[in-house]
Design brief:
257 residues, four-stranded antiparallel beta sheet, two-stranded antiparallel ribbon, binds zinc ion
């Protein structure tokens, strides 16, 4: 009996000891976890684009067509030509109504930033609209064929994408114009209009970038398009604006993170 009681006591002491030791270990582990995820880890994972002070604490694929950082260009066509975003929806901002519903649509996730940017532009007195949003592969094919017929292939290629190579197909890009289509509608002079100047200077505050700048035609392989804006989210948009780099130029850099 005595021996049994002693044994029991020893077991109880051992169990209590184990529980206490586990508790101490657990809190020590939690403490070190916290230390690892706060400032040090953040600093290590943040992306800094050279020439910008912005710390980008998010990261997205540059290849996945559903990613807000995807690069779709002549060099990097969509892997799946039939790609169509799952969350396409008709935008609520002013848009060119004589276009098919598809083209009046963008991805749902762009909507809050788009409405905020248009509201700010309207407040400045600029009556603007979305002239073109999402374009399916077939739609782009139709446009490219008609431009080729009108201007010849070489000229058409400077301003119109081959189907599968247009970022309009991601539902993250849009063309912006004055509602008055006589005012530099999808023309280079739009960049010199008050709305064009304002958009170039403020789009990044809403997560958009001027995708084909005048001084980067050799990099983007597209002519200067002061009307074409692309959603990438605020941190990257601000970093690109500050640094002067295009999305194409930072692609390899973003992929390292
Ligand atoms: Zn465009």
């Amino acid at each position: 009996m005595r021996t049994n009681q002693k044994c029991l006591a020893v077991i109880v002491v051992l169990l209590v000891g184990l529980v206490l030791a586990y508790g101490a270990m657990d809190s020590a582990l939690n403490r070190s976890k916290k230390e690892l995820t706060s400032p040090i880890a953040t600093a290590q994972n943040a992306i800094h684009i050279p020439g910008s002070t912005i710390e980008i604490n998010q990261s997205f694929s540059t290849i996945d067509p559903a990613s807000q950082w995807v690069v779709v260009s002549k060099q990097f066509p969509l892997a799946n030509p039939a790609y169509r975003p799952a969350d396409l929806h008709k935008v609520s901002v002013a848009s060119r109504l004589d276009k098919p519903d598809d083209e009046l649509s963008l991805r749902q996730k762009v909507e809050p930033s788009l409405t905020a940017m248009f509201a700010a532009a309207n407040k400045q007195g600029y009556a603007i609209m979305m002239a073109s949003g999402f374009r399916s592969y077939q739609q782009q094919q139709t446009y490219f064929d008609s431009y080729t017929a009108a201007y010849g292939r070489e000229k058409a290629e400077t301003f119109s994408a081959h189907p599968g190579q247009s970022e309009h197909q991601t539902g993250l890009a849009l063309d912006i114009a004055y509602t008055d289509m006589n005012n530099c509608y999808l023309e280079i002079c739009f960049g010199q209009t008050p709305a064009g100047i304002w958009l170039a200077a403020h789009a990044h505050d809403y997560g958009f970038i001027l995708r084909y700048p005048a001084n980067k035609t050799a990099v983007t392989q597209y002519q200067y398009e002061p009307w074409h804006f692309r959603y990438v989210g605020k941190p990257l948009a601000k970093a690109l604006y500050e640094s002067g780099f295009t999305l194409d130029e930072v692609k390899p850099y973003l992929e390292k993170h």
